[in-house]
## 1
Amino acid sequence: MGSLEGKVAVVTGAAQGIGLAIATRLVADGARVVLGDLDADGAEKAAGGLGAGASAVRCDVTSEQDMTALVGEAVTRYGALDVMVNNAGITRDATIRTMSLDDLRIVLDVHVAGTWIGCKVAGAAMRAGGSGAIVNISSIAGKVGNFGQTNYSAAKAGIVGLTKACAKEFAKDGVRVNAIQPGLIRTAMTEAMPEQAWNSKMAEIPLRRAGEPSEVAAVAAFLAGPMSSYMTGAVLEVTGGRYM
Ligand code: NAD
């Protein structure tokens, strides 16, 4: 029996990359999963590949209405919400000298407001059941700050503060809130990176390789399940030792 047998989960940004790997792992561990993504076709296709225990909903994480409908789908279809993974993300890289205020605002909106809305709607659904686990996907950029990513680094640091504040507010209801800070993980987001930037990051990684989405997913499953029952407000780095 999987460690998430009978549990119901929602994963945002689950059409591809780390979100899809997390949804795949949660299904493998026994959960039924609703995949939310802006990319409706991608999410549909991804859910189709995961079998009867998965379904897809088109959603924009910056919309409270969409996120309420996403969580509502999990509760209506499967009867509850036990796990919420706030994973959807974007980048708009440039140095601050050339970055526009719009590129700051959109990145903050998707990561900080998107995760805040996810915590708010999931927290309300979980409170009703008296338990739950929320996993927020930050980034090591939120700890160290990345050159060319003032917007993204601020957003990912914001997710850490939000995670800890929510952990304090939700603890009395039996809801745990934790975050993951992945390092360099092989996905479409990082494959778009110039080769020189990729190589200079690789040189900083003690384990001497990029991580796979499944390696972030394993930690998300740990934070979602009973093995982390005494953890809340924690931030786990999944970086191959980079910036330890
Ligand atoms: P990705 O670009 O492969 O996937 C992101 C997904 O989010 C896409 O399916 C996209 O459609 C969806 N999305 C974007 N904006 C959305 C919105 N407003 N509403 C709903 N869905 C939206 O990226 P990834 O590499 O899998 O990244 C997933 C998460 O992990 C992100 O939060 C990212 O910042 C974080 N992260 C990634 C890395 C890495 O190295 N890849 C490192 C640290 C943190």
## 2
Amino acid sequence: MSQSNPNIVVVGSSNTDMVVKTPRIPVKGETILGREFIMVPGGKGANQAVAASRLGAQVTFIARVGNDIFGDSSLSNFIANRINTRYIQRDPETPSGVALIFVDEHGENVIVVAPGSNAKLSPDDVQQAEAIIRTAAVILLQLEIPIATVEYTVSLAQSYNVPVILNPAPATTLSPNLLHEITYLTPNETEASILSGIKVNDTSTAETAGKKLIELGVETVIVTLGAAGALVVTAETTKLIPAPKVTAVDTTAAGDAFNGGLAVALATGKSLLEAVQFANYVGALSVTKMGAQPSMPTYDDVMRFMANSNT
Ligand code: ADP
């Protein structure tokens, strides 16, 4: 990339997704024969770490995997993606996180996630990485790890004036204390609805929800709106940044791509609106390809796409 590679710390989940294609979703008590089986690395933390690393950042991932074959393969995947694995703990007792996913012919799915060692990622694990957090350009978190660990990380980052991006996924409510310490909050429409108590289904309701979250103490709210792009809400202004038009093939992990892109753009010193525009391009590119991590673009992919686009 054009600027020196910034340091980004991602604190979050790592899963192995096990996907079985099936003619239909079985009913309770039923056994049916499925079709192909694929096993792919996933977890919002891991997806966002890979997204940021592909875009050229120096990424340290703080996570916890089991001492099992899934943990082995997750670590190999992080190393292949040039992620610093020094602060990834191996839990001696708890298995790695897995997601069991069934997808039918219409693309409908049912998913059960067993968080495993992700649920054991502790404030202590994060504290061990204090030296690298202190000097990071940006810290990026999601909500697939214990909330106490999220709260500890955010306070630690705050104490060193390191900006924090919290992608509040999966959707839940958050304490006022935590909201007060967030620099950038990046909910999608569902998450914005749950966090603000205001049903979000268009730009105008996204603005109302965003303003409410600003009143609750968040510095900047960026509501992602799928193909419509993202709405940036601060105390002073609201601005819709449209996403470029693409043919969507698989929208899995669009939010993860967006957040990885946002972290890299902010860390390289882009302005807020430029950073959201960059993140939109990363999110849009990711939906043009199948899969979560395989669809994450490189910095050159994004530059080429931006140069060929009119948005
Ligand atoms: P999530 O995946 O968390 O539900 P969104 O669906 O809002 O989040 O998508 C996140 C971002 O990915 C959007 O803000 C946009 O930048 C990009 N994106 C998602 N879907 C599309 C699409 N169909 N066309 C273009 N960009 C998209």
## 3
Amino acid sequence: MFSVDREVRVLLVDDQLLVGEMVGLLLEKQIEQGWHLHHIQNPLEAFESARDFKPTVMLVDLEMPELNGLQLLESIRAEPSMVNLPVIILSGYEDSETKAQAFERGASDYLVKLPDSVELVARLRHHTTGFIATRQRDQAERRSKRLAMELRKRNAQLVDLNKIFQQANEALKDEIVVRDARLKSIGSVGIEMSEIQDLDVMMQHILSEARHLVGAEAGAILTRDEDDLVVRYAQNDAHENAGRNAADLAGGFRVSISAGSISGKVTMTGQKINVRDVYSIPPDSGYTFMASYDERTGYRTKSLFTYPLSTASGEVLGVIQLANPFNKEGERKGGFDSGDEKLIENFASMASVALERALLTDSMIMRMVAIAETHDPEETGAHVNRVAGYSRVMFEAWAQRRGMDRSEMERRRDRLSNAARLHDVGKIGISDSILKKPGKLDLPEYAAMQMHTVIGARFFKGYQTEYDEIAREVALHHHEHWDGTGYPGETPVDELFHSPPETPIRSGLVGDEIPIEARIVGLADVYDALSSKRSYKDAWPESKVLQEIADLSGKQFDPELVEIFLDRSDRMRVIRETYKSDSA
Ligand code: C2E
Ligand code: SIN
Ligand code: SIN
Ligand code: FE
Ligand code: FE
């Protein structure tokens, strides 16, 4: 997302042809790498050129016959679409008076003609980076505002629907025609899954770019979970170089916000904290480093910079932490300087926008889950998050075995993750007397229960995006069995919907006819169902759960997935710690 070298577009305004040629030469290497340079000699054409060429930075000569550089600068700053565009004044003069005038009129920088190539390149790149970051933040903010409005509207509709369900529930039981109408109205609310961006991909990029720019060996993003902060993303070159996975070591680590930790303090105050050595923090500073973090990961944190991730309204969603900076020569630095802080600030605001937006999307999905939950108390937010977590791990390993391209893998994994959270939304359409039955279901009841797959699939039917496609397949096929004894198989969804079977469906898709995403969620769902308490069963101990899964390999489950799963039971445990539920 931040390969700036493909985005630098320099608009040069200088009356002399020669200057254009010189700048072209100075930037020759960069232009080969993808930079764009456009030279115009008449400043009166500057606006038109800027509209067509879309520069990320402008170089403007101070003295030109038609209009001097300072006048041009003033009119640029008066133009709303160009206020933020970096403008560097090029001049033959070095006196402070001229420089002061340029900065007063809004120049972003000032260069004496002609600078050497290294300096010119560095400044153009620097200003372009800042410009693009601002532009992305603005775009993200606009998108997030739009989505928030949209969501408020939808939430209102959902609240109404929810009331209707509750009132109608008793009366509607078993009345297929009316149920049909009720479900249609849910369907029309719709879940446009395409709105959902790949949060994890974005956050990992933001963290690695921020680390890269300031040379930090390690970094983490912690987000709020009620009274705790939880490590959601962790990167650490020292671990990776030693063949250890930083995310596994640190992921799920919790710090109580009020316990006096650095990150807790930053969360409470909304103020950054920059520490040169976490092992010699003065006792009167009001915070301490949680050494248990280093003990757990086996890493020695020294310098630590912690910045809040806060929304426009000032609510702190979490923190970004960077540790142990190195300089360009590969030597350890004593700490993060104010330049580093500035850079990180930019990434923090991008991360905040991304997080805030994801929380809105989350609330939309969780709203759907909550509606299902009013019917099925076991189908909780924690349950669906765990199922999503196990599914992600399995999909990664499965994709890796096939040599799937990393970005393709991340995209599909994140889609799967949202689809997994919605696997059982179809339980909305199942009557309470069946869902909440404390004991075993009889055959007609079980047949009715099976309809949750078909009902869920219908929610995503009208949408064409890849998100909805995967959500549909997962909802429909997550109870298929590898040996073909699952459900609902190929039975046409609409036919089933209008005349549900009297007895349970006993034949389904076989083997890899079952979409991989559905095979994965099916295994994750059973793992979680067995390890949790249900209205009809107790929680099983882990050893018994793993034994059952091994026994069902090749029967209920894809043997390859069982192998992948059992190899990673440690990572599954991290996910269970991250999303603990009250009942499990
Ligand atoms: P669920 O509770 O989320 O369970 C998901 C799946 O986990 C089940 O799909 C089944 O494959 C597996 N599972 C659950 N408990 C056991 C177990 O004790 N042993 C084994 N080997 N597998 C188990 P299934 O059977 O298609 O059920 C779908 C949903 O139907 C369940 O979701 C639950 O909500 C409901 N359900 C199934 N059987 C009963 C029952 O006897 N009583 C009640 N009240 N609900 C049931
Ligand atoms: C890590 O060690 O994985 C994260 C760096 C830190 O926050 O100390
Ligand atoms: C952490 O945040 O995970 C440990 C460092 C701290 O005390 O903030
Ligand atoms: Fe299900
Ligand atoms: Fe489930």
